[in-house]
Amino acid sequence: MEIDKAVKECDDSRLKTKYTNAIYVIKRALALYSIQEVAFSFNGGKDSTVLLHLLRAVYFLHKAEERISQDVSDGENIFPIRTIYFETTNAFPEINSFTYETAASYNLQMDIIRLDFKSGLEALLKANPIRAIFLGVRIGDPTAVGQEQFSPSSPGWPPFMRVNPILDWSYRDVWAFLLVCKVQYCSLYDQGYTSIGSIHDTVPNALLCIRNRNNSEEKFRPAYLLPDGRLERAGRVKKYTSPVCGQLSSVSNGLKIEDLNSNSMLTASIIAVGDEILFGSVEDKLGSVLCRKLHSIGWAVSLLVVTRNDIDSVAEEVESRKSTDDMVFIYGGVGPLHSDVTVAGVAKAFGVRMAPDEVFEEHLRHLIGEKCTGDKNEMSQLPEGIAELLHHEQLPVPLIKCCNVIILTATNGPELDLQWDCLIDSLKSNGDLVLMAPFVSKCLATTLSDVEVAEPLSKICLQFPDLYIGGYRGSRKGPLMIRFEGKDLTRIEAASQSLCQKFQPGAFSETK
């Protein structure tokens, strides 16, 4: 009863709405299943703590409505929903302590399972008539992709209904509830932990770190002070595995710098979206700029393609490139128009739905103001479970990263320059972008014919397989340009000299 009273008397209208919706989902589940047929998965984390108190609120409100007891005695103050706790040796001691203390405080009927999740569920459901399990899953959690408030268990798992009352809650909503209701939560959250996994993959969130004046001691602010809930998992340790063979030689400013002598290569593809480009009405000027920027950080561009303003076309290109390249950059087709289908196409490429994002919507509201109404709220929908917002103080709206796909909103060179700089800056702290030795180049011009140069140039290519060597002309009557691209200037000089030595002195001149 105290939970219901605290929420209804607070001034947070958003929390009241989220609370009302969650209570409705729980009541609906309890109308479909008896108390003996439901269970609650509790892991000691903030989300399951919220769910525990929502379940308690519904149960005791139900008892009050039925007038079973207005004055609940100690003997009757037992929470009857079966509670499941998967205890592991990798859990924080604080999590275990909080879980058992909570169970004692609220008289939880707790089943402690020391098997893996799937085996434990199979054993539990075999021994008990459980048909539905309440879970503290929220959109943005890795396990939330494709789930609804009522979702059957996945194929291959024991059959039960997953009930997700707080699926649409944000990080901010969770902490608003815990603080408004003044309920106990695990002490780790007051030590800077924002998302708690095992002792092997969880550290305090660096975004909450505060240091003393001489930087000799680290302290952390509590989790509820994290300004952007989208970054709650920044405290999960990233097990970075370089996709290349070379060894990481150093770390500078949070960016992993690849060994300059490594022969490995990281690749990116670039997708421009726009029927107007394909009609020839507009010239794409961003692709070449983006190529140069990628080369400046040592990345090779494997593909630059233009596709239609069509969800299936975008999805097809993204799907084909996201698994073959280390990163995909896509631009064009982002906005409120009917032809702006890029974000939806990315979602389809990953097989996820579009879902509203509270933080992104707030940024759009500040940018658009009162115009952000009606259908334009669809702009706040992002690919569910995979969208990460890359914030930067110089950007009014954060960039969107979906796994290894970066969605850019730039429409001209200056905008792209700004977004690129902010992108590099935003990825410094988490190691999501590997900086390698930049490409260097040298260009020679000659009045010799293509036929005269062709055979000697082919031999140079075989002699220097680590370099890109290409020829082109600005016009058929203009000079032939031979360009050498690579990461070792010494090798480029050697290749250009070898070519010059095959002809008369002065046959080639260096140009930019």
TrEMBL record:
Residues 269-402 form the MoaB/Mog domain. One of its GO terms (molecular function) is ATP binding. It is an enzyme of class 2 (transferase). The lineage of its organism: Eukaryota, Viridiplantae, Streptophyta, Embryophyta, Tracheophyta. It comes from Anisodus tanguticus. GO terms for biological process: FAD biosynthetic process. Its EC number is 2.7.7.2. CDD domains: FAD_synthase. It comes from the Eukaryota. Keywords: ATP-binding, FAD, Flavoprotein, FMN, Nucleotide-binding, Nucleotidyltransferase, Transferase. Pathway: Cofactor biosynthesis; FAD biosynthesis; FAD from FMN: step 1/1. It catalyses: FMN + ATP + H(+) = FAD + diphosphate. This is FAD synthase. PANTHER family: FAD SYNTHASE (PTHR23293:SF9), FAD SYNTHETASE-RELATED FMN ADENYLYLTRANSFERASE (PTHR23293).
